[in-house]
Amino acid sequence: MRFAVDGAVVSATTGGRLPDPGRPLILFLHGAALDNTVWQLQTRYFSHHGYSVMAVDLPGHGRSEGTPLPSIESYADWVASLLESAGYASANLVGHSMGGLIALETASRHPGLVSTLTMLGPAAAIPVHPALLTAAEAGDHIAYELMASWGHGRRSHLGGHQTPGIWMIGSTIRLWERAGPGVLAADLHACNAYGRGPEAAAAVRCPSLLISGSLDVMTPRRAAAPLRDNLAEVREAVIEGAGHIMIVEQPDPVIDALAAFLADSSS
After folding, report:
1. Mean pLDDT over residues 227-242, rounded?
2. Are 95 and 103 a contacting pair, CB within 8 Å?
């Protein structure tokens, strides 16, 4: 699916079914320098279980035109424009890592547009080590290798995906390699500069879900403490044995947690 937002073409996947305006929308937002393909199993499930689904490529990512935006705040305003362009008055926002910060900021800045908020790999802030920023700016492949290693739980380093033959570390590195020059560095800078997490969480009034991996070393559970303390209505789910990229490592438990949350929130 392709449509225009702020004069640039945006690419989105819809889980095998075109969005139906009569169904509630789930909008999936990917993490730094990734694209909408990381949501393949989640979009497929929810598009066949009562929801309209869009997993978008952020500007300058995947097949979307433009360049990466400079801040989490600017991405949040872009999400608001996206929903208007797509003809939706509101959506259930689901964001992973950087996408989680974008979803949080959108719910804070544009509360009327957000029915529910889900953050995977949640954190009030995602500081980035200067050495990683330097490597990303230089296009050094070590940035991809380090992030892939840190982003997956121990089991995923050896295999263990529910689909035989899937090499999770290698697949994630290939996604980052496919990103355009400077995309990873731009996204890491946006994450590193974002400091409004607690303030944004305090302004959110919709039901919220935080999904953490028990082995996440990039955004460990303690990093979400300011969110837990400030969100008005929050529940948590922990995916045992998963690292930061739990949406790929353990997609079924992620789907189960999200489906239960959305069902409870709608009732």
Report:
1. 96
2. yes
